[in-house]
């Protein structure tokens, strides 16, 4: 199975070698610190930190851009709405419509925070295999049922996507184009078929897991082994550096005008 988010997890960089538990904790602390920032003066520092970490990860730039494409539609909607409807101070006019200063600044803040936090998330899950990340979550205390739900949701998103592409190809071969309102009913039937097939497959997978001892003492899905991860002082030092950077952002946010 080839998972798209961790296709470069095999690289050998300090971030790839970092213990997944410390890496998960460090990146989450930094992400929360970024989300706490509201001062425009800290945006360049956030971009520098995110860019430096992405450079260290050695992930291709195309990898980042491809995964920013869909979330970028959210920014596009914000760019359309905020400059025109947020604030009172007019910067300039586009015909009869005023572009507001407060809206532009809000758009800048939201865009930079959004891109920096998303970049950190991509680095976090792009430098570790997704299965290892889930094991690290369980080692940090995430209930096993939630960890399994995360893993299966991620796994079967791609499986459902493959089925959807197969069905779309079959529909196109039969002359379906989907360019008018009459095709809404067909698309609704397609979504319903995908939903029913996904439910049936999840039921089959669950029954197969139960037969193999899932959820029982000594069976599969009990929890990670104690020797699953081996941390060293370097891993702890990396976590302390991330905590120090996060604290600097929080303190600067509190004391900057």
TrEMBL record:
It is a multi-pass membrane protein. The keyword Protein biosynthesis does not apply. The chain crosses the membrane at residues 21-40, 46-66, 73-95, 107-127, 236-256. Pfam families: CbiQ. It is found in: Cell membrane. Keywords: Cell membrane, Membrane, Transmembrane, Transmembrane helix. It comes from the Bacteria. GO terms for cellular component: ATP-binding cassette (ABC) transporter complex. GO terms for biological process: cobalt ion transport. This is Cobalt ABC transporter, permease protein CbiQ. It comes from Calderihabitans maritimus.
């Amino acid at each position: 199975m080839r998972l798209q988010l961790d296709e470069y997890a095999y690289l050998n960089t300090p971030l790839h070698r970092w213990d997944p538990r410390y890496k998960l904790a460090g990146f989450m602390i930094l992400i929360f610190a970024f989300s706490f920032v509201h001062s425009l003066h800290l945006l360049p520092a956030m971009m520098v930190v995110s860019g430096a970490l992405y450079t260290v990860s050695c992930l291709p730039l195309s990898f980042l851009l491809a995964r920013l494409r869909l979330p970028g539609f959210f920014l596009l909607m914000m760019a359309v709405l905020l400059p025109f409807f947020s604030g009172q101070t007019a910067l300039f006019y586009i015909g009869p419509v005023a572009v507001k200063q407060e809206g532009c600044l809000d758009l800048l803040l939201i865009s930079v925070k959004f891109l920096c936090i998303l970049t950190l998330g991509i680095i976090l899950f792009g430098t570790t295999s997704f299965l290892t990340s889930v094991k690290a979550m369980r080692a940090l205390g995430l209930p096993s049922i939630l960890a399994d739900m995360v893993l299966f949701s991620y796994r079967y998103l791609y499986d459902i996507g493959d089925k959807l592409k197969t069905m779309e190809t079959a529909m196109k071969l039969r002359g379906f184009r989907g360019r008018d309102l009459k095709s809404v009913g067909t698309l609704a039937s397609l979504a319903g078929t995908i939903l029913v097939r996904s439910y049936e497959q999840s039921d089959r997978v669950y029954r197969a897991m139960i037969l193999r001892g899932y959820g029982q003492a000594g069976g599969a899905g009990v929890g990670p082994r104690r020797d699953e991860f081996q941390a060293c002082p370097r891993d702890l030092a990396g976590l302390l550096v991330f905590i120090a950077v996060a604290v600097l952002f929080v303190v600067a946010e509190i004391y900057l005008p």
